[in-house]
UniProtKB/TrEMBL annotation:
Pfam families reported in the protein's UniProt record: DUF1540
InterPro entries: DUF1540 (IPR011437)
UniProt name for this protein: DUF1540 domain-containing protein
Organism of derivation: Desulfotruncus arcticus DSM 17038
Domain DUF1540 intervals: 6-46
Length: 50
């Protein structure tokens, strides 16, 4: 399994100094259209801080 080394979502519980510390992540498409770039994806593992 690949290790996520960069996370730019400062509001995520798993983000520590821009490194993802989740045991694993799930990435999915963010819409119903055909995905052609990373802009059409989202991290489904996101958990808000707090």
């Amino acid at each position: 399994m690949s290790h996520v080394t960069k996370c730019m979502c400062e509001e995520c519980h798993y983000n520590e100094n821009f490194n993802c510390h989740a045991d694993g992540i799930e990435v999915k498409s963010s819409g119903d259209n055909k995905i052609e770039t990373s802009d059409g994806t989202c991290c489904n593992t996101f958990k808000p801080k707090g």
